[in-house]
Specification:
Helix content: 25-40%
Structural class: alpha/beta
Protein name: Gfo/Idh/MocA family oxidoreductase
Oligomer: single chain
InterPro entries: Gfo/Idh/MocA-like_OxRdtase_N (IPR000683), Gfo/Idh/MocA_Oxidoreductase (IPR052515), GFO_IDH_MocA-like_dom (IPR055170), NAD(P)-bd_dom_sf (IPR036291)
Pfam family, one: GFO_IDH_MocA_C3
Order of helices and strands: EHEHEHEHEHEHEHHEEEEEEEHHE
Length: about 350
């Protein structure tokens, strides 16, 4: 098998998940690390025994690099994706793939004309509980889906925003809670139900109003393609990062994800199906445990042309479309139709 040389753009907290995942994939070498902070970047590159670049455009001139991982602030994703694809690289990008629907259109066009692949990191789709939910729904034993409710209550301090100038700014983050944290929950909801046809939502800011231009809380009602209804609530104003609470109500029972454990609940019975706990029994981090699997699937697709078992631009665009629709709905206080 051909060795694939990889570069990571961005040395922030999330890049470590990518490094750890790459170390587990055979015939993959971390060749370069890119960061605008030369002191931090050089230190990381020395630790990883790879090259350092301060400018990602210079790195893209290296013909030996096959895959580029983008772990940078939201507003940089689109231009970096377009440049990397134009340079003939495969690209794996952290969510969101862009800032808005216009970005989705531009990136989709670039992907259609590119030789490389674009994968987007929605690692929570690969949590054991998420995969089991999808299996249970496809199995059909619980009957028709009637509704989904999801509650996400996390904690973000003022320092989280003030220590990173791009966070909480509309021009650089694209919003706040929805586009950064809760987009994963919206993605799971629409994925389980096969898409959204319309929604109405409200966003607001309370505890974090003084440190972010975006929202710290949001709620929405969603109508799904399969006829089910969704209710969604999220906030960064809690005092800890509580595990996602998600319940799918069907004709003959429910699937309940609570405290990282999935239960099938039917009249008179509550049966444990799956858990997201780590093999050593520790609780999962709020990033989930799916980064390794998401990255592994993307590299498998690179090595096996025609394989589509990864989150592509079409799938990644769906949750970003929902985020943008909730923002718009909150502005005009009306239902928004979604074009899937």
């Amino acid at each position: 098998m051909t060795i694939l040389n990889t570069a990571i753009i961005g040395g922030g907290a999330i890049h470590g998940c990518h490094v750890n995942a790459l170390r587990q994939i055979p015939n993959v070498t971390l060749r370069a690390l890119v960061d605008t902070d030369s002191v931090k970047g050089l230190k990381l590159a020395m630790n990883y025994q790879c090259r350092f670049y301060q400018d990602y455009r210079e790195m893209l001139l290296d013909d030996s690099i096959d895959v580029v991982h983008i772990c940078t602030p939201h507003f940089e994703h689109k231009n970096m994706i377009l440049a990397a694809l134009a340079a003939g690289k495969n690209v794996f990008c952290e969510k969101p793939v862009g800032m808005n629907g216009s970005d989705i259109i531009d990136i989709t066009r670039a992907v259609e004309g590119a030789s490389g692949l674009l994968g987007v990191c929605y690692q929570n789709r690969l949590n054991p509980t998420s995969l089991r939910i999808l299996h249970e729904l496809r199995n059909g034993g619980l009957g028709k889906m009637l509704s989904i409710r999801a509650v996400l209550t996390w904690s973000r301090s003022g320092a989280y925003y003030t220590d990173s100038a791009w966070r909480g700014r509309l021009a650089t983050e694209g919003g706040s809670l929805l586009i950064n944290q809760a987009i994963h929950t919206l993605d799971l909801m629409q994925w389980f139900a096969g898409g959204v046809t319309r929604l109405k939502g409200v966003v607001d800011s309370g505890e974090l109003a003084d440190v972010t231009e975006g929202e710290d809380s949001a709620m929405a009602t969603l109508h799904f393609t399969n006829g089910a209804r969704g209710i969604f609530y999220a906030s960064n104003c809690y005092t800890t990062d509580s595990p996602l609470l998600l319940e799918i109500h069907c004709e003959h029972g429910s699937l309940l994800l609570n405290d990282n454990t999935l239960w099938r609940v039917t009249p008179g019975e509550r049966f444990k199906l799956e858990s997201d706990a780590a093999p050593d029994g520790s609780a999962k981090s709020y990033w989930g445990l799916g980064h390794q699997q998401a990255i592994r699937r993307f590299y498998h697709a690179i090595n096996n042309p025609g394989n589509t078992d990864y989150t592509d631009i079409r799938e990644a665009g769906k949750s970003l479309t929902l985020v943008e629709a909730i923002y718009r709905s909150s502005q005009i206080r009306q239902w928004i139709d979604i074009n899937n």
